[in-house]
Each structure stands twice: as structure tokens, then as C-alpha cells.
């Protein structure tokens, strides 16, 4: 039995969900509302002491870390593998999953919190509940300094330290995606695979926040073409978009679109 603890606007949960659907794996979806603080429930902390989603429980075995969950699933259920066999395609895939874990994930989390999540949690929580929510984040969470960063992002938005650098870092990786997609049809080779599944939620996040101009108008044409093909992929909508509740989808678009005017100058878009 496979249980996946996840959330509708979690990028790393989305990549695991999509991977499982692509691998034809059935799972019980266990929803953890990370914008209401359900990740701090003592029972959930026993599974995931960092208080983050996703967490996979496979026949009682607990696996955390989204990249490792996908690697685990490819080992345990090799019938339809997402990881390429070709050594260079494998290396290019690992380049992307490593870049996500080391850099891009924090850049995306920072952008999302500064643009939208800071407003969304304020709508959901009273001042008192918000203070408790912020105080509950463990010292070692999304990153070793996430608790402090989250506090600053909620308080100051784009004025919080380091936000511009994170937006620029996000841009650096989108530019690199565009380059790789010029060299081959999908991210790691001419075949769709784990790199595409893993990076999609990060591009989708920008689109859901009304910021697709980031790659449009000739800025990143190969990325734009890939994104169109991803959106047309049969399981994309049901695995990624449909899990995000309607109010959250609307809020991401509303607050994200308003924040685009803050992001554009950082990217040098007129
Ligand atoms: N390295 C972890 C990161 C997990 C993570 O950052 N999850 C976010 C959602 S994408 C989360 O649960 N955040 C909760 C919070 O900020 O309190 C993984 O890949 O699984």
C-alpha cells in the first residue's frame, strides 16, 4: 500500500504525485494543509520531523525527500521507469534533480512566499495563529534557515533580505532549461522523463502566479514550447492542477499577478 502525504500548492509533492501517476501507481492521497499548519501535527512530525510534505509511506516504510521518493519508486517499481538508462541522459537528469534540491527549490519557495503565500496565510490565520504557525517551523525544515526566512518573508515580502537574489537564481535555471531544451526535445534527452516530471511544478508555479511573461515574448522560446507540450500531456492537469483547491488557485493568481510588477524589474523586463 502506498500513502502519499501532500498538499495542493507544494511543488515537491506535485512532482511525486505526477511521477506516481506516470508510473501507474495507485496511492492513498493524504492531504496536509501546510498553509494552515497541519504539517506541525505531532503525529505527522513522527513521519517527517522537518514538518514538510511530501512523505511516502510504503507498506509501513517511511520515505521522505521528494527526489529520494521518486528514486525509491523507480527502484521498487521498475516496470515503467522515469529515470533514463542512457548514461548521459541519466547525468543530465541528476544535474536537474540536484539543482532543484540545492538551489531552485529555495528560490521557488522564496518567490512564492514573497508573492502569494504570505497573503494567503494571513487570510487563513488570525494574528495569534499566525504567530504560532511561524514559531512551529522546526530549525531544520525546508532548509536549515527556513524558519527565520519564512518569518522575514511573511513580514516584509519583496523587502525581505535576499529575495532579489533568489529571483535571479530562479531565472538562471530557467535560462539553463531553455538552453537544454534547444539541444534536445525534453529536458535530459529526446525522451520525456524524470527531469521533466521534476521541473514541471516549478514552471507551473510561475504560470499559476500569472508570471508566464517570464519566458514569453521571445525571452525563453524553447522553454515556452516545452511548457505548451507539458500542459498538453494527458496526465498533467489531473495530477498537478486539479489537486490545488479552487480558492488557493485563485489566490495564487490574484496575489501572484499583483507581484509581477515587483519581479519584472529584478529580471530586467520592461
Ligand atoms: N527537500 C524537501 C523539501 C520539502 C519542502 O520544502 N516542502 C514544502 C512544500 S514544497 C513544505 O512542506 N513546506 C512547509 C513549510 O514551509 O512549513 C523535499 O524535496 O521533499
What does this structure look like?
The chain is of the alpha+beta class. It has two domains: about 1-80, Glutaredoxin, CATH 3.40.30.10; about 85-265, Glutathione S-transferase Yfyf (Class Pi), Chain A, domain 2 (Up-down Bundle), CATH 1.20.1050.10. Helices cover about 60% and strands about 5% of the residues. The protein contains eleven helices and four strands, in the order βαβαββααααααααα. It has a four-stranded mixed β-sheet, covered by helices on one side. A hairpin with a 2-residue loop joins β3 and β4 (about 60-65). α4 crosses α6 (about 145-155), α4 (about 85-125) runs parallel beside α8 (about 195-210) and α7 (about 165-185) packs across α9. It is globular, with a radius of gyration of 18 Å. The relative contact order is 0.14. The model has no long low-confidence stretch (mean pLDDT about 95). The protein binds glutathione (GSH). Glutathione (GSH) binds near residues 11, 12, 34 and 65.
Amino acid at each position: 500500500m502506498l500513502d502519499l502525504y501532500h498538499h495542493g500548492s507544494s511543488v515537491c509533492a506535485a512532482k511525486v504525485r505526477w511521477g506516481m501517476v506516470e508510473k501507474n501507481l495507485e496511492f492513498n492521497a493524504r492531504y496536509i494543509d501546510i498553509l494552515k499548519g497541519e504539517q506541525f501535527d505531532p503525529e505527522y512530525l513522527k513521519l517527517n520531523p522537518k514538518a514538510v510534505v511530501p512523505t511516502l509511506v510504503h507498506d509501513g516504510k517511511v520515505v521522505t525527500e521528494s527526489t529520494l521518493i521518486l528514486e525509491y519508486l523507480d527502484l521498487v517499481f521498475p516496470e515503467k521507469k522515469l529515470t533514463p538508462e542512457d548514461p548521459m541522459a541519466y547525468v543530465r537528469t541528476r544535474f536537474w534533480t540536484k539543482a532543484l534540491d540545492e538551489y531552485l527549490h529555495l528560490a521557488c519557495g522564496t518567490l512564492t512566499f514573497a508573492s502569494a503565500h504570505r497573503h494567503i496565510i494571513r487570510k487563513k490565520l488570525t494574528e495569534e495563529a499566525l504567530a504560532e504557525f511561524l514559531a512551529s517551523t522546526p530549525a531544520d525544515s525546508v532548509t536549515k534557515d527556513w524558519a527565520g526566512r519564512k518569518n522575514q518573508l511573511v513580514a516584509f515580502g519583496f523587502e525581505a533580505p535576499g529575495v532579489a537574489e533568489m529571483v535571479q537564481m530562479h531565472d538562471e535555471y530557467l535560462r539553463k532549461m531553455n538552453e537544454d531544451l534547444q539541444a534536445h526535445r525534453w529536458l535530459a534527452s529526446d525522451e520525456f522523463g524524470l527531469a521533466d516530471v521534476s521541473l514541471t511544478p516549478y514552471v507551473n508555479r510561475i504560470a499559476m502566479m500569472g508570471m508566464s511573461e517570464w519566458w514569453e515574448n521571445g525571452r525563453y522560446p524553447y522553454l515556452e514550447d516545452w511548457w505548451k507540450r507539458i500542459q498538453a500531456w494527458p496526465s498533467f492537469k489531473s495530477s498537478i492542477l486539479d489537486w490545488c483547491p479552487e480558492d488557493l488557485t485563485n489566490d495564487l493568481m490574484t496575489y501572484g499577478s499583483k507581484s509581477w510588477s515587483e519581479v519584472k524589474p529584478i529580471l530586467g523586463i520592461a
